[in-house]
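Quarterly update from the structural biology core.
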Amino acid sequence: MSVLTPQSEVTPGQTNEVTLQVVNGGDVDLGTPSSRSVVTTARNVRLTATSDDSPLSVETETTALGAVTEERPREVPIAVSVPNGTDPGDYELEVELEYSYTSQYSSGVTYDREATTTVDVDVEVTNDARFRITDITTDSQVGDQGTLEATVKNVGATTAYETTVALESSSSGLTLGQRTSDAARVGSIAPGESVTVPYSTAFAATAPDRQYAITGQVSFETSDGIDHVDQGLSAGVTPLSEQTFALEDIESTLRVGEDGEITGTVVNTGPVPANNVVVQYAGTSQSVIPIEQSAAVGSLDAGESTEFTLPLSIGGEAESGLRTVDFAVQYRNDDGEARGYRDVAVNAEVAPERDGFSVAIANQTIEAGETRSVEVTVTNNLGEPASDLEARLFANDPLETGDTDTGYVQSLEAGESTTMTFELTTTGSATPGSTYPISLDFRYDDVDGDSHLSDTYRAPIDVTASEGGGLPLPIIFVAVLVVGTGGLVVYRRRQ
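Predicted structure, tokenized:
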């Protein structure tokens, strides 16, 4: 039994894989060809490699190979660690083979024996260029793309020419270039020299915030033009956390059936600055109508905050009370690329619906048969100015509006009141002591110049008896009819 090493070179500073080739060179003194394999086959072969007199150490324990025949050598990979600083040159490994075999086969009877063979094999510690990643960083955030920079140092003894540095990610959450691996050509690297190689990288939005394994290799040519590959690159890289924002100090002037606004503070909770930050309404509720879709607040460093205001309108069919309003924050990164953060929601109070105007009448009485001026105080409850405000008075029998049934004011600020005068008359059918309604509505323009017609507002009018001393008109009218009828009857009798 013999052991060969087809590739015997090992590199300092790493654990190398060395392939040992076990060859069975058994022979037969006497026998038939059909029985040759019975005698020459080594069975239950066990291989143990050690290195006692050198800085090299074998990390692989005893390996069982089974049977090894003449026709089929067996290959055994073993791990050999070579410390940094090991001098270049040849080193020996001691390989021990334990096995059983048939020493004689006669008339169907076999004679088996145990054997141990020890052989020495040489491995060469090279002085070629070899490499190590000494630093690796990225400015890429979870859910975003950026640049990964790997600093590679030639820790070998010779210059590497026509060098290519290839890195690979074994995680689906990290891509390099357009795939999970990427390679960069960097030219020559002298002994002790370091080069920093940039790679385009991206982390998936679902990638956990942790360290990701990076492996790689350096392909190069020696000074003799011979191609070599150092496959020992290994490092870990941690992305920056996902860019986040928070909305704080939220205040609401929202009200059912009216325009309002949500104000608050947007905070860049990091980890990097954000440019051209815009707060956007991102809800889908049909009862919330954005008057403006977004509010730009400028650029924010990590940890910086600023105020924002976003006007919204609440539909007349909406429910009042506390409700959740969805927002999004749009921004641009340092490369000017648009990014968004949507995991933002605030609680905003929506006030109940209120009358756009309120009306008050100082004197709500009118004498039967009287025509009088009615002063109505109108207050703007819209929460915004109303311009070109025109009021119209309506009344039904037994009340009638006179020539003055409209009022006008050029502008009425939010919360401001004005007094308008209208003419009102009672007809003959008005009954003293009864109450009758009058109605008013308002046509006006809002701050955007849009025209609106308000709801109709009703107010009570009390009819009182006339203070002129005579009978009320209905009674007088009835008395006239009675007297007239009596006179007619008397006249007819005389005929």
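Residues 469-495 have pLDDT under 50 and may be disordered.
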